[in-house]
Amino acid sequence: MTTQSSPRPRAAAALEGARAARRRLTFIGVMARQLDQIAPGTTRVRIVPVHTDRNGEQHVALWVSLDDALGLPLRADRDAHRAALSLLRSAFPFADWTRPRAYDTATGDLVLDAPAMPEELRR
User: Fold this and answer.
1) pLDDT in tens, 65-99
2) What letter would DSSP give residue 107?
């Protein structure tokens, strides 16, 4: 005897997938609007940990760059940089902020932003 899968579980999975896609698109749109309110024209946020030595004590600060569609840094004040960092830290609470990260407003992805060697040099 063979068992056939009923269309109901596949339909339920399709509905759940559609809901997840809508939630993701909503998240991407909200983040893009909030970053645009913080610093108009922001399409990418780069966050890099910077290690400093103050009076013999090691400190880690996070350097934030707000970039436009061409990849050029936007003119924004310190409060805008802090607000963007705060927004991303609240949106991605489990991210490892000890490594460089980049957030793309088009995709909604927070990715590792480590420099890579060009393919031509790997040969």
Assistant:
1) 999 999 889 999 999 999 999 999 999 999 999 99
2) T
How far apart, in whole angstroms, are the C-alpha atoms of residue 43 and residue 32? 8
Residue in the block written with tokens 């103050």: 54
pTM, 2 dp: 0.79
Residue 119 DSSP code: G
The DSSP code sequence of 70-99 is TSPBP---HHHHHHHHHHHHHH-TT--TTS
Calpha distance 35→21 (Å, rounded): 21
Cα 118 versus chain centre, distance: 23
56 pLDDT band (50/70/90 cuts)? Answer: confident
Is residue 82 a contact partner of residue 69, using CB atoms and an 8 Å limit?
A: no
Going from N- to C-terminal start, the domains of the chain cover 7-122
